[in-house]
Design a protein that fits this description.
Blueprint (H helix, E strand, L loop, with lengths): L1 H4 L1 H17 L3 H26 L7 H18 L4 H23 L4 H21 L1 H4 L5 E2 L15 H23 L2 H11 L1 H6 L4 H27 L1 E2 L6 H14 L5 H16 L7 H15 L3 H17 L4 H5 L1 H4 L6
Antiparallel strand pairs: 1-2
């Protein structure tokens, strides 16, 4: 874990992603990993508003569906090129997130979560019932694949895998720049104490709204990739179960860390694949796992490790010289 946290560790992860198609047994494994990458992008966005800013958004899958349906409607019904429609997917989700955030971010704690859960359910109902726009329960069929770039056609599972992988790498890099900047520290300050952050001159509403829009931008971009990858959309994309899945990925890896949500989003789908015979009992299986994680690893795998490393470093530091010199005085020894 210590190696993965450094630059060489990230380089190793990128190298493993590049060689994965060479060691994958079949195209199905490429499809599973590509889908995991797409949801990892959305999970990284959820981690920004939840893990770094402290606002638990339960409408995240709804914003992912907004990005996906932006691509589906524009390409199928209005015959836009895929990349032109994809360019709007994240911005459409962020624009909607602006109006939702203005209303929801006035609330705090579980009130905010309940409000966003209602918003997510409204998004699901709109997609399901507005047949003239979203095709309702029939869904959108025949979404075109991403167009060629520099002569590379994305018409095979391997090329689609590399396309999604590139977007994941870019998404992680941009998010790392955000969370390590002054803006990222501002988000963390709000998470730790809104009152203290406000006393320091931080505009709470504006900063939380920016975090919310950046978060749902990631969700919309992931939705646009999802539409071009599966080439079919239904109302289930906006189901709150997808938000719970992304939350599970984030909690297992470690909310408020950059590596944690990524590891969670990539490991849980493979665990699900190997436990397909328990698919009907999925929540019975993962429910106790989450309970045990909350009890024994409340900060996730990566978060718990980072906390342990920080405590170890603090204990390893020698006491200041002045403190050691004063020790006899505290023990009652007189120098007079």
């Amino acid at each position: 874990m210590n190696g993965i946290q450094g630059k060489w560790g990230w380089a190793l992860l990128a190298a493993l992603g590049l060689v994965f198609p060479l060691i994958a047994k079949n195209d199905y494994h490429l499809t599973v990993m590509s889908t995991a990458y797409i949801f990892a992008i959305a999970t990284i966005g959820l981690n920004l508003i939840t893990g770094y800013t402290g606002q638990f958004n339960l409408a995240h899958s709804g914003f992912m569906a907004v990005g996906a349906y932006t691509v589906g409607i524009l390409t199928v019904d209005h015959h836009w090129p895929f990349w032109a429609a994809f360019a709007l997917s994240g911005f459409t989700a962020a624009a909607l997130g602006f109006f939702v955030g203005i209303l929801s971010l006035r609330l705090r704690g579980h009130f905010f979560s309940i409000f966003t859960m209602c918003v997510g359910y409204i998004m699901f109902l709109v997609i399901e019932k507005w047949e003239s726009l979203t095709h309702g329960t029939v869904g959108i069929i025949g979404i075109p694949a991403p167009g060629p770039i520099a002569g590379i056609a994305f018409d095979t599972p391997r090329t689609l895998y590399y396309l999604v992988f590139v977007f994941l790498v870019l998404g992680v890099w941009v998010m790392s720049r955000i969370v390590r900047s002054l803006l990222g520290r501002t988000f963390v300050a709000i998470r730790n104490s809104e009152e203290l952050a406000e006393s320091l001159g931080i505009n709470l509403m504006r900063t939380k709204l920016l975090a919310f829009m950046l978060s749902v931008f990631y969700a919309g971009m992931a939705g646009g990739l999802y539409a071009g990858f599966v080439r079919f959309l239904g109302p289930g994309v906006a189901a709150v179960e997808n938000t719970f899945d992304m939350t599970m990925h984030m909690l297992i890896g470690g909310a408020g860390t950059l590596l944690g949500p990524l590891l969670g989003a990539l490991s849980v789908p493979w665990l699900t694949q190997y436990l397909q015979f328990l698919q009907e009992y999925r929540f019975i299986v993962f429910g106790p796992i989450l309970v045990l994680l909350v009890i024994f690893l409340p900060h996730g795998v990566v978060g718990t490790y980072l906390g342990w490393r920080a405590r170890r470093a603090a204990h390893a530091q020698p006491a200041p010289a002045a403190t050691r010199a004063d020790a006899p005085m505290r023990e009652g020894t007189s120098h007079v």
